[in-house]
Specification:
By secondary structure, the protein is an alpha+beta fold. The chain folds into three domains: about 220 residues, no CATH class; about 140 residues, no CATH class; about 55 residues, Arc Repressor Mutant, subunit A (Orthogonal Bundle). It has 19 helices and ten strands. β9 and β10 form a beta hairpin. The longest helix is centred in the last third of the chain and has 38 residues. The radius of gyration is 25 Å and the shape is flat. It binds a DNA duplex through α16 and α19.
Length: about 475
DNA sequence: CTATGGCACGGATT
DNA sequence: AATCCGTGCCATAG
């Protein structure tokens, strides 16, 4: 069973509400960010708070994290709708018989881990006596690709000058997920900026904005940054846009855990997941945590001051302001509903596809969007929209399209590949049908042929009788 | 005669 | 309403 999600009864009140919710649902987190920005800029009745208050324990949470215990989505107790722009949901597993960890070797053996991936790139440039140092640094990368230990500590541990460690770090930072091994998101951004600068132009003041306005940047307080640097807010805005489009404060998240051969034609890289699925800390409970990610965090709400201000304005302006207020609250409600729907959806998916998430593609269950829609009590098209154009990051670091959870043939194709790889003589399609059936996949002969084509496997007659 | 690829139909998705 | 995917039927290559 998965944790009960309080149903805040955010019902669509008007068709406008419904329509906007639909639109929001289909947006990726990056697009949503733009939407929120646009709305924020054009509607004075909306405001963004830089803090998140846990809805249950009412505690302020800094840094965009979510209270681990009371990680429920927000609800509006007062008439002050609130949206937390980063939400988490814990989904507990089911059927915990002991058969899960055994299988994992096969997948994890093929998946190169971030540390080795980076090490391979820098190895030629590392002096032998620095190998140990490099290994030390690389093994202390967290899942975001950032360094989890202070450089000074590493230097002292190995009794070497700090500068030597710093040089090594510079080397690592230039390796593939650019910025990897930085000590902070800020540093990662600066490194990425440096590297980008070598090949293309970057906006003015970019490094200054990052350097001095990092804390304010994530809260989108552009004016404040502008004031600090003594430049126009518009310039800050341009930089912010550039950053969100080209840089990644968490280099590890864009890392595709499985750097496979170019044989895989669908090697599309999703730079940023919209959803993050991770194992919850204590491995015993076998819980999965689902996070709906947002590029920005904070609390979006209708500005209460604006509401008050209405009283004191002239009648002509009142109407316009009322409209703003109306729009603002509608927007917030829609956003709330989007989050709510996404959360319910992902909770359900994580529950159904648990084996897939933990143990790899082989265990993908064929789920249709329609059946899921029925279970959740929403229209199919809602699921369609929610699922399209989004990416999920799995616990093992791979980032895949959300739509993959609904691929009816993926697991069958994996098995098929395995069978063919293990075959002693070229097997014909109809023989493959039989073998697949033994693995529990009932497919037509013709379909096997199609799968083969999809995987780029030649027909039996042309396969080497090795 | 067997193994495959082409084309078209029906249900699912968008 | 337009499109994608699994299948069945049929023609063609060995």
């Amino acid at each position: 069973m998965f944790q009960h999600i309080p149903f805040h009864a955010i019902k669509p009140l008007t068709t406008a509400h419904l329509a906007q919710t639909m639109t929001l649902l289909s947006l990726t987190s990056n697009e949503l960010q733009e939407q929120i920005e646009a709305e924020l800029a054009s509607n004075p009745a909306l405001e963004m708070l830089d803090e998140i208050r846990c809805p249950t324990c009412r505690r302020l949470i800094k840094g965009g994290g979510v209270c681990p215990v009371c990680s429920q989505p927000a609800l509006n107790k007062e008439d002050e709708p609130i949206v937390f722009v980063s939400t988490r949901e814990v989904v507990s597993g089911f059927g915990d018989s002991g058969e899960e960890e055994d299988r994992e070797d096969t997948t994890s053996a093929m998946v190169e881990d971030l540390a080795t991936y980076v090490f391979r790139q820098i190895a030629p440039d590392v002096a032998p006596e620095d190998r140990k140092l490099a290994a030390h640094l690389l093994t202390n990368l967290d899942e975001d690709g950032l360094l989890a230990v202070p450089l000074l500590e590493v230097a002292m541990y190995h009794h070497v000058p700090l500068s030597r460690v710093e040089n090594l770090q510079r080397l690592i930072q230039r390796a593939d997920p650019v910025g990897v091994g930085s000590t902070s998101p800020k540093e990662a951004l600066l490194v990425q900026l440096e590297v980008l600068k070598e090949t293309r132009s970057v906006p003015d003041y970019a490094s200054e904005v990052i350097e001095q306005g990092m804390d304010l940047l994530s809260r989108r307080q552009f004016h404040e940054i502008a004031k600090r640097l003594g430049i126009q807010a518009e310039k800050v805005r341009i930089v912010a846009r550039f950053i969100s489009e080209n840089l990644n404060p968490f280099p590890g998240r864009s890392y595709w855990g499985d750097v496979r051969q170019p044989s895989a034609p669908q090697t599309q890289v999703y730079y940023r997941p919209d959803i993050l699925i991770s194992k919850v800390n204590d491995s015993k409970s076998n819980q999965l945590m689902v996070e709906i990610l947002f590029p920005i965090w904070g609390t979006l709400r209708v500005n209460p001051l604006y509401r008050q201000a209405i009283q004191q304005t002239s009648d002509e302006q009142k109407d316009a302001m009322r409209e703003d207020l109306e729009r603002a609250s509608l927007f917030v409600k829609c956003l709330q509903q989007r989050n709510h729907t996404m959360q319910r959806l992902m909770a359900k998916i994580a529950f159904l596809q648990r084996d897939f998430i933990l143990n790899g593609e082989k265990y993908l269950r064929p789920i249709t969007r329609a059946s899921l829609a029925k279970e959740l009590g929403v229209h199919e098209s809602t699921i369609s929209r929610a699922v399209a154009n989004k990416a999920v990051q799995l616990p093992n670091g791979r980032i895949i399209p959300l739509a993959d959870f609904f691929d009816r043939s993926l697991s069958a194709r994996i098995i098929l590949k395995e069978i063919i790889t293990a075959e002693r003589r070229p097997l014909s399609d109809s023989e493959l049908v039989r073998l697949l059936a033994e693995h529990g996949y009932e497919v037509a002969r013709r379909t096997v042929a199609k799968y083969r084509a999809m995987e780029g496997i030649l027909p039996a007659s042309l396969r080497r009788p090795c």
